[in-house]
Amino acid sequence: MPQTGRTLEDTCGSQSTSCSGISIEYAAFRQLNYAAYVDYAHVRTGNQETAMRCADITFDKLWTIWQTALRESPAARGWELLREQVEDLSTCSSGHDWTAHCLLQADNADAILLHRRLGLSVTEAAGLMGLPDYAVRGLLRTSDRMLGALPPCLAPLVAELVGS
Predict the structure, then answer these.
(1) What is the distance between the alpha carbons of residues 66 and 73, in angstroms, rounded to a whole number?
(2) What dotted CATH number matches 99-164?
(3) How does DSSP assign 93-160, residue by residue?
(4) Contact in structure between 26 and 66 (CB atoms under 8 Å)
(5) pLDDT by residue (tens digit) across 79-114?
(6) Residue 41: which of 125, 114, 137, 115 has the closest Cα?
(7) What is the pLDDT of residue 99?
(8) Is 11 exposed, middle or buried (CB count within 10 Å of its CB: 0-12, 13-18, 19+)?
């Protein structure tokens, strides 16, 4: 798992009292999801350093709303923040080797990236995105239908995206 060298104390500040009571949950969530966030961001941006920066910024922002995220869904909120970070830094320019986000809606493209490109199970992808398993299965099926409806001239671009 990639390490940034940042500790929870770096995030909260050594004298902070706002970390008490939630630091274990936050630290566990960060540790559990950091590598997958970086992997996702790396595919989207094409750059490992940028990917790590996206993950770090995401977790910094998540920390500032952690109490709210705990009342809702930390996974869904974290995923939303990560996607925002990555979207600002990724493009659909010529030469970019990941086309799903250029062709599909964000949730569909994310499900394909996590499941088919990164090899996560449907359950793992769903957990990371803060969605139920059935929703990710639906996103994958819908994506296959949308990609299958594209003109044949785009087949080389979408070959790795389509499920078997």
Answers:
(1) 10
(2) 1.10.10
(3) -TT-S--HHHHS-HHHHHHHIIIIIS---HHHHHHHHT--HHHHHHHHHHHHHHHHTS-GGGHHHHTT
(4) yes
(5) 999 999 998 887 666 556 677 888 889 999 999 999
(6) 114
(7) 76
(8) buried
Q: What pTM value is reported for the model?
A: 0.81
φ, ψ at 80 (rounded to 5°): -60, -45
Closest CA to 104 of 143, 62, 139: 143
Whether the predicted pLDDT of 17 surpasses 50: no
Which among 126, 118, 160, 162 is positioned nearest to 144, based on CA atoms? 162
CA 146 to chain centre: 22
The DSSP code for 19 is T
pLDDT value, residue 135: 98
Hey, what are 72's tokens?
Answer: 């809702």
In the chain, residues under CATH classification 1.10.10 are 99-164
Residue with tokens 């500032």: 64
Residues 6+ apart with CB under 8 A from 62: 26, 29, 69, 74, 77, 78, 81
Tokens of 104: 């599909």
CB 126 within 8 A of CB 135: yes
